[in-house]
Design brief:
- The chain has about 300 residues and is α+β, with helices and mostly antiparallel strands.
- Helices cover about 15% and strands about 20% of the residues.
- The protein is rod-shaped and about 125 Å long.
- The N and C termini lie far apart (about 125 Å).
Length: about 300
Amino acid sequence: MEWNPEPQDQGPFWPDTAERRSPRWVPILVAVALVIVVVGGVIWWLGRDTGDDGDAPAAADNTEELSEDTGSDEQPAIEDAEQTAEAPATSDASDAADVTDASDTPDTSASPTSTTVAITTTVPATTTTITTVPPENPGQFGPPTLSNRSTVSTVGLDEVHFGMTVADAQEAAGTVLVPAGPTGACYHVVPHDAPEGIVFLVHAGTIERVDINSGPVTTRSGVGVGSPETMVTDLFGDRIEREVRVDGTVDLVFVPRDAGDQNYRVVFNISEGMVRAYKSGRLPMVMLDTGCETS
């Protein structure tokens, strides 16, 4: 038998005798090997970059706490008051809510040494100087009704209620309300024959708030200038909203629970743990510094 060195047909993908003898398969195989090496290297490099990206530090948290923002843009929104609302009737004055909402007794539902804070923000502070000129006829509305025993409620000072015209307020106070500067759409008045430290704000012809800056006048609950901060927080508990001012003082804002008093606030300004001044009135004037910023 004659020996045949050539293998038998191995199928359609096996090179025939002539092809196996041809040197062109060598560069083709080398090229395929190079392509495999290059593709493998690219895949490895891309996988390495993806892993590095996963170790990148997380983005910095830019969230700012409201209490650290000193801009006025963060000031809590104050709902617009209806300036056309009628003043509370004098006959209903005994039923008007004071800053305890129902009585002068402390709120026993809250801890006597803690305050539930509803809101904390930072607001600007201003100082207003009050100067007056004696009236020509100081006794025309007498006798005066405001005294050292007068008290502030959510609706006014004694019989002077928020929403009264200046003429009606003078009759109720029994004395002239002397303008503390030029009159206009918004200005301040001081009762002539009355205890010191009382300033009313007039807006659009009606009394909108009263400021107590000194003197003996207190709220119906007995809080006055010089009272300790703890007295306010112990009495009113979770009805107090706290606002930090840029001058370092704190406003403790009393928010009534009674639905009929939702447009009213009492604001105690606290400095060094004591009541420095306080004010009562209708929104939005009661929450402004001088009360005339929007005029």
